[in-house]
């Protein structure tokens, strides 16, 4: 139902209900759900529009609404409106699943004159409420405004509303203000859950040092609440460390978020959330950055540094550099340098290699520029294969023109910044004046409608902007600023609890509109302390720290950094003045190593200056001179350069001979390791012909480190002295080795050839290159061979086709002959001395002991008589082996054919017969050894059936089956029998015994009243014969002796054991028949050892028939077997022997 209450009244909750807060799509509507889960198709109430707040005069009122029959108004529908009814009202829409609440304000104005009754009755006020009754009802769609628009407005000043609306294309300014007011109320209600107080919201700003920051003051209800920062809706990590990319620093109630090293990717909407509630939003936009000077193509030599420089239109702490589409970072390979004004950006590619060639680019957001890096290889041939020294020169760079453009842009940026500051100050003053005018108009309006009752609590004067901690350098001005909500309130300043008064010119208290300032000029150390500003009972505090770090005068620093250039042996002095709080620590460094006083180092120190004196400086002292001054407030450094000039060191050898012919000697050398600080102007040469005492002066040849001497005699040797000359003098001389004009330099002999492998038609050799190459590259090799016993060497390869690799396969050999080999190297001068001859080696295959190569070799083959039999064996052996076949240890019969090759042998029996059965052995033998293998061939035929079958009953319930042997029994020692049984009840044939090597078997479990038939089959390796079938056997009734006899008898054997012979690995079946009353206990023994508990033997006793089965007979089963039967009346035993026939073996 609908219900209207005053805003201060609370809606009770029924027992057992929950209160789950939900958000409506209509701003200002609060929904509370009473159940944990909503049933399917059900929903909590909601409003489609908020009620309209009204201000009316006294009179009668009627309430209107589209209510269903189940809803009602709590108040009367027609009542008299008086001044006491002015208030904020709530409207409730309620069902069993929840309640929706919305508020509206009613202001009643007292009338100042009388009207007619008709007019008073006609004046009404309408609260129109719309309840969502049809979830599927369609509403007119309006274009949605980006949510970023509202987030920016709720954190922006009113003066920025117009620019934000223009940015997002919003033209309904009045509608925007109305919706913004509703959203602010809703946002404030959400913020009240986590924040007690929120003020001093400063939007994000780009600072002069290239960083950006925004700040706000807030008091959290729960100090442990989580604070999150989002950029364009994506959470970004931050740290309290100011050196990381994003930092959030808290000082008291002030939170400052900073972005270090702003780059174009940092632009976007930043939002602060506390426990999921949005607190503050600010939009960060970077001015478009353009390239005033783009990077240019650079051509650098190998191992030289390459420099790319550009100038941008706005200061940036960092831009992105890429090389061959790969991002580049500061490191050992690249230096990324940014000027102090952040306009000049430089990339240095250190120690260029040929692989560094490619396109390099500088990127600032949407703009970029690129250029080529071309790396030229060292063209000197003698430097190939040698590590090149790194060069100290640099290629590329912008030069003076680039610095001029950067200076002009710096002045322009500074001017624009000052104009923006002045404009912002003017806007602030105008805003303050407008606020004052608005306040005056508001006061005047309030005076006119003083009879209107408002429920408003004046908070009094409060601080809208608190004090911030300030750090000032001694001698500079410090300014403490706060802001009040009223211009008319005076503020009182305190320092460390004592009131501050303007007793001197250095203290200035300023009242600037709502701003209150305390300016301390020419700060001194005693000005440090805690300052407090109080106004109308409110106060704000901050600390002022006055520091006195070491400082250097700019003119003194400019003079200090100028390089000091002296000659060797002279003195060098460095002096620098400074100011700062004492005590100060002063340190001097030379190339990073701290200088301490000694014979040639003097250091003077005082509170205002320091002087370094270096006496009798040597060339090695050249380098960076740095002074470091430190006190408790900070550290400062200054760097200068010391250059000590000296004569160069001698040129470096050995010389590289470019050409040595009958007409000239052309050679080069390396430049001095140290040129003494001055460039080489000339090289001075003199020459001596070997064998003479005089030296001929060749004079100065210029700064290039090479010389071509054409005044030579063919075959003569010369020695040269080389000196380097600079402005500081002439170096010591470097003497070359003797160089002969016109003599060829042949390579030395290679290593002795090594025999890798030898065969009958090929011998493989390998060797190493000579240690002396003759000063040039090896072009190839020649190989010579010689037979053992001969004095003549013959060439293996054609002389015009040298062998490129250091290995070769010699195929021009004759099997059985012994050879030796030697190798000579070839360079540009020709072939050098041959190597030491190799060892003698025979041209023959290596000796290999015979080995069978078949992965699976058969060792048993069954053949049907009349068929042909083939047995193959593959092998490898060297030399070729002799092959021999044996049958049962004797040579094979002539009718057996044997075919041999170098790697295989085949035995074939054209038409096999039974007497061909046996074990066939192959013997493969050569000089190294022999190998044998055997295979058993069994030639047989389909078995013939046994003779007639007879049946006999020896023990009740059993039948003894016997038969005449098969005619093949004497021909096949692997022949055996199988018995099957058929009875009149089951009517199927069942196997009752198999692998029988005798001609008799006792079948048990013969049931009275059934007819039985038995079949006996002959089996061998070829298969099964036709059966021999017995007559029908029927046991009609149980003998009377078994039904009526009740006397006790001792045990006795009615059927004794009989002797057994069984081939190895076959099944053996023993049985006997025992009678006696009471039933005898039967025990089996082998060699007097009981077998009843041995699991290798299967023992049964059924109806007096005692049987034992050995499933797989082995040699260990041979022996004497005994059966002992005993009862209370006596004991009887029966014995037999088992002979296991093993496989036949042949030598």
UniProtKB/TrEMBL annotation:
PROSITE patterns hit by this protein: FN3, IG_LIKE
Domain of life: Eukaryota
One GO BP annotation of this record: sarcomere organization
Domain Fibronectin type-III as annotated: residue spans: 650-746, 749-846, 945-1041
Keyword annotations: Coiled coil, Cytoplasm, Immunoglobulin domain, Repeat
Coiled-coil region(s): 403-448
Keyword Cytoplasm: yes
Name of protein: Immunoglobulin like and fibronectin type III domain containing 1, tandem duplicate 3
Organism: Sander lucioperca (Pike-perch)
């Amino acid at each position: 139902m609908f219900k209207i209450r005053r805003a201060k009244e609370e809606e009770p909750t029924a027992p057992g209900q929950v209160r789950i807060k939900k958000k409506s799509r209509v701003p200002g509507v609060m929904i509370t759900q009473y159940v944990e889960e909503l049933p399917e198709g059900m929903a909590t109430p909601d409003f489609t529009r908020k009620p309209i707040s009204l201000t009316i005069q006294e009179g009668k009122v009627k309430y209107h609404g589209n209510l269903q029959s189940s809803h009602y108004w709590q108040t009367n529908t027609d009542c008299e409106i008086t001044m006491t009814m002015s208030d904020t009202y709530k409207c409730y829409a309620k069902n069993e699943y929840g309640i929706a609440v919305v508020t509206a304000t009613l202001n009643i104005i007292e009338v100042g004159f009388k009207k007619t009754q008709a007019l008073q009755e006609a004046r009404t006020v309408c609260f129109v409420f719309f309840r969502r009754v049809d979830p599927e009802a369609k509403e007119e769609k309006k274009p949605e405004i980006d949510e970023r628009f509202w987030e920016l407005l709720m954190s922006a000043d009113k003066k920025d509303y117009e620019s934000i609306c223009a940015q997002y294309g919003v033209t309904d300014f009045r509608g925007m203000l109305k919706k913004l007011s509703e959203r602010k109320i809703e946002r404030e209600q959400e913020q009240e859950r986590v924040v007690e107080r929120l003020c001093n919201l400063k939007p994000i700003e780009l600072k002069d040092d290239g960083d950006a920051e925004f700040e706000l003051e807030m008091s959290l209800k729960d100090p442990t609440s989580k604070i999150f920062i989002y950029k364009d809706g994506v959470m970004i990590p931050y740290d309290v460390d100011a050196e990381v990319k994003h930092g959030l620093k808290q000082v008291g109630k002030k939170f400052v978020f900073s972005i270090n090293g702003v780059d174009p990717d940092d632009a976007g909407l930043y939002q602060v959330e506390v426990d999921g509630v949005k607190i503050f939003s600010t939009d960060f936009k970077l001015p478009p950055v353009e390239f005033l000077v783009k990077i240019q193509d650079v051509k650098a030599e190998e191992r030289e540094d390459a420099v790319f420089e550009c100038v941008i239109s706005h200061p940036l702490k960092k831009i992105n550099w890429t090389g061959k589409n790969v991002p580049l970072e500061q490191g050992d390979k690249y230096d990324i340098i940014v000027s102090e004004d952040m306009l000049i950006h430089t990339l240095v590619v250190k120690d260029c290699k040929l692989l560094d060639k490619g396109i390099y680019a500088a990127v600032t957001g949407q703009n970029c520029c690129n250029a080529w890096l071309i790396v030229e290889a060292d063209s000197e041939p003698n430097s190939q294969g040698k590590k090149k020294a790194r060069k100290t020169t640099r290629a590329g760079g912008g030069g003076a023109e680039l610095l001029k453009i950067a200076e002009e842009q710096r002045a322009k940026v500074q001017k624009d910044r000052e104009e923006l500051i002045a404009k912002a100050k003017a806007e602030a003053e105008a805003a303050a004046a407008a606020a004052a005018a608005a306040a005056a108009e508001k006061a005047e309006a309030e005076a006119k409608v003083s009879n209107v009752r408002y429920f408003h609590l004046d908070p009094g004067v409060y601080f809208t902007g608190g004090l911030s901690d300030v750090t000032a350098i001694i001698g500079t001005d410090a300014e403490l600023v706060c802001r009040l909500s009223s211009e008319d309130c005076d503020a009182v300043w305190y320092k460390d609890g004592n009131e501050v008064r303007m007793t001197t010119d250095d203290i200035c208290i300023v009242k600037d509109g709502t701003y209150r300032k305390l300016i301390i000029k020419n700060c001194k150390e005693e000005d440090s302390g805690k300052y407090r500003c109080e106004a109308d009972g409110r106060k704000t505090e901050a600390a002022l720290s006055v520091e006195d770090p070491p400082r250097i005068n700019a003119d003194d620093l400019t003079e200090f950094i100028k390089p000091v250039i002296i000659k060797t042996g002279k003195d060098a002095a460095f002096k620098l003045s400074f100011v700062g709080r004492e005590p100060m620590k002063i340190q001097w460094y030379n190339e990073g190593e701290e200088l301490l006083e000694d014979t040639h180092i003097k250091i003077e120190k005082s509170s205002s200056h320091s002087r370094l004196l270096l006496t009798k400086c040597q060339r090695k002292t050249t380098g960076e001179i740095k002074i470091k001054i430190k006190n408790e407030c900070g550290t400062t450094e200054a760097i200068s350069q010391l250059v000590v000039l000296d004569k160069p060191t001698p040129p470096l050898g050995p010389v590289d001979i470019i050409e040595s012919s009958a007409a000239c000697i052309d050679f080069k050398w390396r430049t001095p390791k140290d040129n003494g600080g001055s460039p080489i102007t000339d090289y001075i040469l003199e020459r001596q012909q070997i064998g003479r005492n005089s030296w001929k002066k060749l004079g100065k040849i210029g700064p290039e480190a090479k010389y071509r001497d054409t005044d030579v005699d063919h075959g003569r040797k010369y020695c040269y002295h080389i000196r380097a000359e600079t402005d500081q003098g002439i170096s010591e001389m470097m003497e070359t080795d003797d160089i002969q004009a016109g003599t060829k330099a042949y390579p030395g002999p290679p290593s002795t050839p090594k025999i890798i492998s030898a065969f009958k038609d090929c011998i493989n050799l390998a060797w190493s290159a000579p240690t002396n190459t003759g000063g040039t590259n090896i072009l190839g090799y020649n190989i010579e061979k010689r037979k053992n016993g001969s004095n003549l060497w013959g060439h293996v390869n054609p002389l015009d086709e040298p062998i490129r690799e250091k290995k070769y396969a010699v195929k021009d050999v004759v099997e059985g002959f012994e050879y030796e080999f030697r190798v000579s190297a070839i360079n540009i001068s020709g072939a050098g001395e041959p190597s030491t001859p190799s060892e003698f080696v025979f041209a023959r295959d290596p000796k290999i002991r015979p080995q069978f190569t078949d992965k699976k070799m058969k060792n048993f083959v069954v053949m049907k008589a009349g068929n042909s039999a083939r047995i193959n064996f593959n092998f490898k052996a060297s030399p070729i082996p002799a092959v021999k076949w044996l049958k049962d240890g004797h040579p094979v019969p002539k009718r057996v054919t044997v075919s041999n090759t170098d790697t295989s042998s085949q035995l074939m029996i054209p038409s096999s017969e039974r007497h061909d059965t046996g074990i066939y052995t192959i013997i493969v033998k050569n000089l190294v050894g022999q190998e044998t293998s055997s295979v058993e061939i069994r030639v047989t035929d389909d078995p013939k059936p046994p003779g007639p079958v007879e049946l006999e009953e020896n023990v009740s319930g059993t039948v003894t089956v016997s038969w005449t042997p098969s005619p093949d029994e004497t021909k096949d020692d692997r022949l055996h029998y199988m018995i099957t049984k058929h009875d009149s009840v089951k009517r199927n044939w069942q196997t009752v015994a198999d692998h029988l090597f005798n001609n008799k078997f006792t079948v048990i479990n013969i049931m009275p009243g059934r007819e039985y038939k038995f079949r006996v089959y002959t089996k061998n390796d070829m298969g099964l014969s036709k059966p021999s079938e017995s007559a029908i056997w029927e046991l009609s009734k149980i003998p009377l002796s078994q039904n009526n006899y009740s006397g006790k008898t001792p045990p006795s054997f009615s059927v004794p054991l009989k002797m057994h012979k069984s081939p190895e690995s076959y099944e053996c079946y023993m049985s006997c028949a025992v009678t006696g009353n009471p039933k005898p206990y039967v025990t089996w023994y082998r060699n007097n050892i009981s077998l009843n508990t041995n699991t290798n033997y299967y023992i049964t006793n059924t109806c007096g028939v005692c049987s034992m089965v050995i499933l797989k007979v082995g040699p260990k089963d041979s022996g004497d077997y005994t059966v002992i039967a005993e009862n209370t009346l006596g004991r009887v035993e029966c014995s037999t022997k088992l002979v296991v026939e093993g496989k036949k073996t042949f030598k």
